[in-house]
Amino acid sequence: MNKTEYDIVKKLLEKRTKEIKNNQTEARSVLVRAGIFTEKGNLKKVYKDICTLPSLA
Fold first, then answer.
1. Rounded-to-integer distance, Cα 45 and Cα 25, Å
2. What is the 3-state secondary structure (H, E, C) of the chain?
3. Which of 16, 28, 29, 44 pairs with 22 at a CA distance of 20 to 30 A?
């Protein structure tokens, strides 16, 4: 990916983030479509044991 493509993707992501920032329903649907959450709102099994806090690792 070159710099121009990167800038285009970055702008698209920033725009999408602004669109869903204050809309919990839309934000949840993005996470469901990405395969991170189930339709019921639970984390998928592969994500349940991930720890991203250095103090807890």
1. 22
2. CCHHHHHHHHHHHHHHHHHHCCCHHHHHHHHHHCCCECCCCCECHHHHCCCCCCCCC
3. 44
Question: How confident is the model over 11-55, as pLDDT tens digits?
Answer: 999 998 898 888 988 989 989 999 999 999 888 988 888 777 666
Q: How far apart are CA 12 and CA 18, in angstroms?
A: 10
User: CA 10, 33, 7: angle at the middle one, nearest 5?
Assistant: 5
Strand, coil or helix: 43: strand
Distance CA(57)–CA(36), nearest Å, equals 21
Locate 24 and state its tokens.
């919990």
CB 31 within 8 A of CB 42: no
